[in-house]
Amino acid sequence: MQKNVTIDINGQPHRQAVEPRLLLVHFLREVAGLTGTHIGCETSLCGACTVLLDGRAVKSCTVLAVQADGRSVTTVEGLAQGDKLHALQEGFWEEHGLQCGFCTPGMLMCSHDLLANHPTPTSADIREAINGNVCRCTGYQNIVNAVKNASRKMAKRVSARAGAR
Amino acid sequence: MIPANFDYESPRTLSEALDLLASRQDAKILAGGHSLLPAMKLRLAAPSVVVDLGRIAGLNHIRESGDRIVIGAMTPHADVASSKILHVACPLLAQAASQIGDVQVRNRGTIGGSLAAAHPAADYPAAVLALDAEIMAVSRSGERSLPATKFFTGMFTTELRPDEIITEVRVPRTEGASVAYKKFHHPASGYAVVGVAVRIKKAGTRIDSAAISITGVGHIAYRATAVENALRGKPLGVIAEAAAHAAEGVEVLSDYYASAEYRRHLATVFTRRALEQALEASGK
Amino acid sequence: MARNGKANGKGNAKLAAVWVGKKLKRKEDPRLIQGTSHYTDDLKLPRMLFCAFTRSPMAHAEIRAIRTDAARALPGVVGVFTAHDLTGLGMVPCAIQMPGLNLPPHPVLATERVRYVGEPVAAVVAENLYTARDAAEAIEVDYEPLPVVVNMEKALEKDSPVIHQQFRTNRAFTHALKNGDIQSAFKKADRVVKQRVINQRLAPVAMEPRAVLGEYLPGENRLTVWSATQIPHLLRTQISVMVGLPETAVRVIAPEVGGGFGSKLNVYAEEGLVPWLAMKLGRPIKWAETRRENITSTIHGRDTINDLELALKKDGRILGLRVRILADMGAYHQLLTPLIPQLTALMQAGCYKIPAIDIEIQGVFTNKMSTDAYRGAGRPEATYNIERIMDVAAHELGMDPVELRIKNFPQAKEFPFTTVTGLVYDSAKYQESIKRALRLSGYDSLRRRQKSGWKNGKYYGVGVSTYVEICAIGPSAATPAGGWESGTVRIEPTGKVTVLTGASPHGQGQETTFAQLIADELGIHPEDVNVVHGDTLAVPYGIGTFGSRATAVGGTAAYLATQKLKTKMARLAAHLLGAKPADISFGRGRLSGKGSKKSISFGELVMAAYTARNIPAGFEPGLEATHFFEPSNFTFPFGAHIASVEVDGETGEVKIDKYVAVDDCGNVINPMLVDGQIHGGIAQGMGQAMWEELIYNEEGQIVNGTMMDYALPKAHLLPEFTLDRTVTPTPVNPMGVKGVGEAGTIASTPCVVNAVCDALSVLGVKHIDMPLKPERVWRAMQQAQASAQLEPQPNDTPSSSRAKRGISVSEKAARSKA
């Protein structure tokens, strides 16, 4: 009844025999021990469990671990490069884009998907892009500011890299 | 939050999948999983075997084929929403896809899965009806083409047989037509309280033909034939009058968020607005 | 606030502070943005078991039988427990004592009856979460349905089913607050304005659902309970009573807590049962709530019916206010359930001079989950009542709602101001808040847009709410379980500072703000100040975080503990420097004598206190001080909010296009965090005004019990908020801070409803109940248009002229549709 799955999480392969019904979010939290990905609803709505699956934001409570077999997952724990925070993490920190922090990992991963496709979003773009992520603390305004902050930083870094070439 | 246990099959080919469906009576097909898994997590569904189509090659594509665009059943909503081909050749489908759920849902949910789920307030059903799309399904006994207009049979039910799998959706090129998808979003679920898809062809200042379909209002999306009839051959000025027939002959849904009376009213307003938007877009 | 510890009364800009007043990035954030922090459900202990509950699907029923065999037979199931198995475990507590309160027993698992959907009936413990859930699903319960009552007015009727038979009534209590000559106020009135308003039931929906982990070590006789709570110490006391261990054997830890909004200011059945089961089974047990459980079985907020009557003179002067409130308790009293409506009574006068008041509240039992404190707790209801009736009155008198408000404000010189409900408001300048809000919102141009819009069939509305709220809860005499707070400041030998606070922040950021505060006092860097909270073994007894109290009460305790330490350090420094203690000052990492001629580094001084070789006679070694701060009064933040909305005349959809908030929470320690609290508060209040409503049907079933149905505010639904503030320090604490956690919520709900009713006043719409769902707004418009067409009114009142204009607008709208 159990299936062997191997999921690459933040660059590390995790191999485990699991029940087919095991949700990806539980694989991340219970098998891989990465508890930064949270569970905030059971109806695929709140977005707290958002991770990147092969680079795209998905709700890991609505993916079976067996579906992710052989694929790669990025969680909030994989955003920073060593001590160097991702621009989005810096943005959330600098703009006070979080309070209790519970929705934050999902917000970060969803914003990551947005900036990958739209590097310079408007406030309205950001608000639309995170409408599958619920935050009860911030009223979203500083989250919007945080994503813009990151967008500016990333643009600057891209142009700096281009200049260096 | 936790589904009941089930057997999991992950066929690599369509024919393997069809064999599994034929041999396991209560098998459920898992496409993007955004209808099935939520139901299983709430234990509203508890299939004994789940057949995952995710590893079958050749079901995820958008390509031109003569006067049609063919969308593979496993194509996620996000790909439909952002498809350059569809933006040119069939923007209505892309517009509808772009308004489904949220980013994460659109990244994962698939067109085949959504159509097969036949949710009464889903967006795609309205779009495929207005487009007179064909839904291609296969079983071990062969392939058949199901016209969208005959596909939906009721709330969560379709013409699909349990041993059939949707492989692709074929939509016409709509260059030259005016199209729009206008939706009143439920503030929590994002589903359509009312969603109206329109495809009209003008002949000068008259309406040559109109295909209008509405989701969220009845037990399943439907073609608003009374509106279509009231528009056909008429001057553009009749749209408000025609829109009043939006929920004619329909048993209108009612829930805590929107009563039947209000939904009926919204159907009229949004039908008119969708028509106006389509004409405005084509006027440019 | 400042070095000498005196409030300077002039606001932040003038403070001689280095860190206080700065937008310091939060110390909490690195662990939160990297996902390396631990909420309760993130914890995993060796041999840990998982708990799941079987809950009642019936709102009111006799339990005939519970069949657990199938559940027990599942591999991996360790135990199944029903009420019969819980001998020795106490009841779910309620902290409220009041005369005539009907206080029913509240068992941890339902005994012979269930009284609301979601009431726990059986608990399962298993080796893993999935098995625990399977087992909970496998338990079969035979219920004999009883008649259900969910409507408060029906519950008070003679023939209603009675939920707790021993009381023979569903009335939980009656509470009255009367002052002034209400009879003559209404006799003298030129106009009496009446309105019934409903404050609907809300689900708090903190993003982190509740979770409890219990571990018992018999050798040490130590029970450790991790819980997503706002009140670790109060919870420890209650758990010790429930499980029958001495309080010294119980340790409660509130690890990272993902929001509370009052829903974790409680003691729940699971918080007693899970630790008790861990004791019985000898293994750690964890339970994490699902969202559906969270919506059925975590406390709800509000749910009151309010009949308001305001007596006024023609010129708008208020003479008296009469309020009748029905407050839904749900089926049981949770920790503070009956207290919440009493806060409504206390704050009912708002920021107005009201000579006479007459309030009567009845608490009512129904077959629903308990209500309790939810962001604002009683004050949003009070503010909504007074701010709505003020608007209704303004429209009936033909006055601008701003003018009516200003007319009834107390003047700044009247503070401290004693209200008709007996409170003493500490300090305020209500006139200044509204003046700024008017300017910032462009009020006059909004009014102009509204007028021209009405002529063109567009419905723009402007809503105002001026509010005052009660914070820094509070003097112990006025609170059920102590209103003080504790603070300990310990300077470690290396010069690093540990602050232990009895407050228990869960998103508010006190690890940062307290560090700013203490760093300034000691003349060091906030990085060197580590704020510890939420562990009853580490922190002296405290009360917790709720009622916008953590900084105003807990911060003051830490501040005063620091003053004690500074006195001691000054004595040692004077000894070492040959100076006078009174001349020692703190700053830039040094302690200096008069004129800074002689100084010693902070680190050296601290080390001297620990090495204790050269200390003054009788000097107690070490550097640690604790203060238990008992506030002399509440604080009363205030402000003025203005919302501008557009209502879709065809569909009733409301778009909030502008929102301006001018708030005053006294002195500000970190403006970025204060703004964050206001943003979140506004959003939550808007949620109530616009979308949120937990609906029980006649059978007592929740109709919209998941996030797919219960509409929370989301990013794309909310406008951008424009904030400003005034700073009126409170004299109640030495820092002059008032509290800000609930202000936004309290103000924004009436503000938005006022704006929408204002937009539709042209049609003769007087009031629409929340939430302002499109259909409800649409129906209000339909009804107003229909009645305006049917009933020609006398033409001397302003409302009838509005109604007339309404007809023309409706005709225009009808034409445009045709």
Structural write-up:
The complex is a heterotrimer of chains A (165), B (284) and C (818). Chain A is α+β, with helices and mostly antiparallel strands. Chain A has helices at 24-31, 87-94, 104-117, 123-129, 141-164, and strands spanning 3-9, 12-18, 50-53, 56-59, 72-74. In chain A, helix 2 (87-94) crosses helix 5. The longest helix of chain A is centred in the C-terminal third of the chain and has 24 residues, at 141-164. Chain B has 284 residues and is an alpha+beta fold. Chain B has helices spanning 14-23, 36-41, 77-82, 84-89, 91-98, 103-108, 111-117, 124-130, 148-151, 225-231, 239-243, 260-283; strands at residues 7-9, 27-30, 49-52, 62-65, 68-72, 134-139, 142-147, 152-154, 157-158, 165-172, 178-185, 192-203, 206-215, 222-223. The longest helix of chain C is centred in the last third of the chain and has 28 residues, at 550-577. Chain C is α+β, with helices and mostly antiparallel strands. In chain C, the strands form seven sheets. In chain C, strands 3-5-1-12-9-10-11 form a seven-stranded mixed β-sheet, sandwiched between helices. The radius of gyration of chain C is 28 Å and the shape is globular. Chains in contact: A-B, A-C, B-C. Chains A and C meet through helix 1, helix 2, helix 3, helix 4 and helix 5 of A and helix 1 and helix 17 of C.
Which strand order does the major sheet of chain C show? 3-5-1-12-9-10-11
Mean pLDDT of chain C: 94
How many separate domains of chain C? 3
Shape of chain B: globular
What helical percentage do the residues of chain B reach? 25-40%
Q: What is the correct CATH architecture of the largest domain in chain C? A: 2-Layer Sandwich
Note the run of SSEs of chain B as H and E.
Answer: EHEHEEEHHHHHHEEHEEEEEEEHHH
Give the tally of structural domains of chain B: 3
Which pair has the most extensive contact? Answer: A-C, 59 and 58 residues
Low-confidence stretches of chain C: 1-15, 793-818
Strand order, main sheet of chain B: write it out. Answer: 4-5-10-6-7
**What value does the average pLDDT of chain B take?**
96
Which structural class is indicated by helix and strand composition of chain C?
alpha+beta
> Helical stretch count of chain B?
12
